[in-house]
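Problem statement: downstream parser choked on a complex file, so we are re-checking the raw output for the magnesium ion run. The parser issue turned out to be on our end (a line-ending mismatch), but while we're here, posting the original submission so the record is complete.
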Amino acid sequence: NLTEKFDTVFKKLRGRGRLSEENIKDALREVRLVLLEADVNFRVVKDFIAAVRDRALGQDVLKSLTPAQQVIKIVREELARLMGEGEANALDLAARPPVPVMLCGLQGAGKTTTCGKLALSLRRQKRNPLLVPADIYRPAAIEQLKTVGRQINVEVFDSQPGQDPVKICEAARAYAELNGFDTLILDTAGRLHIDSELMQELVRIRDSLEPREILFVADAMTGQDAVNVAESFNQVLDISGVILTKLDGDARGGAALSIRAVTGKPIKLVGMGEKLDALEVFHPDRMAQRILGMGDVLSLIEKAQSVVETEDAARMEAQLRKDGFTLETFRDQLQMIKKMGSMEGLLKMIPGAGKAMKQMKGMQPPDQEMKKIEAIINSMTRRERHDHRILNGSRRQRIARGSGTTVQDVNQLIKRFSEAQKMMKKMQKMGPKGLKGMMRG
Ligand code: GDP
Ligand code: MG
C-alpha cells in the first residue's frame, strides 16, 4: 500500500546524513513511481513532482541539518495542497430552509449509507434533516433508506416505487416546509456505469430543487475509476464537492490524491466505515500525514472528543501536553478507544499502529489484544509507565507475571510503543504545525 511504499522511499533518504541533488532527484523518481502505482492520475503526478522538486532544490534544503526531513516535509505539504489544503471544505448550508443537499454517484458507492451518516451528523449539529428516497428503481432502495432512518431516528419522506423522482423531491420540499425540516437529504439513484438517462434525471432534480450542495459520492476502493467518474458527474452536474467513502479499507490514497486536482472540487467528507457515525470532515493535511504513515493523532483525538465526555478528552489532552506520549497516556487513549467501537479504524490512526495491526493480523482479534495491552500497562509502576526506558529484564519478567502474559508480549508492546513514540516526536519536530501546535489550534 501507499504508506508502506513511501516509508521505503523515505527510509533510504533518511539513511544518509547529507544529501546531494542527485539523492533528492532519485528519491523523487521513486515517489513518482509510488504515486503512479497507486493509480494517481498521470498529469497530477507530473505537476506534483515538479512542485516538490522546485521547492526541494530551490531552497536551503541541502544545507540544512536535516535535509531528508525537509524533503519529507515538502512532500507532505505538497500532498496536502494537492488535496485542497487551505480551502474551506465545510458544507455550505447557509440558505433559506429547507436546504436541499443532493447526493449522487454510481451504485454501491455508498450514497444511501452516507445519507444516513450525514443526517446523523446534521442532527448532532442541531439541524432537523428529512431523508428523501429518490431512488425509485429498486424497491429495496427505499426500504434501505427507511431502515437507515429508523436507526438514527430521522424521518424518511414517504415515497412509492415508480413515482417520478423529481415529483418526489418537490413533494418532499413542500412537506419539509410545512413540518419544520430545515435540510433535505436527497438519496438519488445510481447505475453500475455512467448512463445518459440517469444523468438527465439527476439534471432534472438539480434544476427543480437547486440543491445548495451537490455531493458526488465516490468509493475510494475503486481508485482511478472513482476519479474518472467524478469528472464525468462534475461535467454534467457541476458538483459542489466530493464525499469519499470506504477510506477505512486498504486502497486509500490514490483517489483522494487526484480527485481534487482533476475535478477542481474539494473532498468535503470521508466515510470511515459501515456504521452510521463513521463520517468525518476531510482534512487534507491529516490525510497527507496518514498517507506518509505518520498516523492521524488529531482525528483520533477529535473522534474521542465527540464520543467521550468532553471533560475526559480535555483531561487527556492536558495530560498529553504535560507528560508527552507515555505508556500511561497511551493506555488512557486505548481505554477511550474501547468506548468507541470500531477498533480497526481507530487503530490505524495511532502512529505505528498500522504496522502493529499487520503483525496482529491472523493472530488475535484486536479487542483481545487490547485487553492484553491494558493488563501489561496496568502491571507497571507509575514510574515505569512514565519512562519505559527503565524497563529492564527483571522488571519485564515481573510485569509479564503480574499481567498473565509472556515476556515476549511485554517486549512486543514496548517495542511497538517506542516506535510510536519516536514518530510522535518526529511529528512534533516538523515545525510550528507539529503535533503540539496543532493540538492547541
Ligand atoms: P449506494 O448504492 O450508493 O446507495 O450504496 P450503499 O449506501 O447501499 O452502500 C453500499 C455498500 O457500501 C454497503 O454495504 C455499505 O455498508 C458500504 N459502505 C458505505 N460506506 C462505507 C464506508 O465508508 N466504509 C465501508 N467499509 N463500507 C461502506
Ligand atoms: Mg442506494
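For whoever reads this later: Residues 379 and 399 are 5 Å apart (CA to CA).
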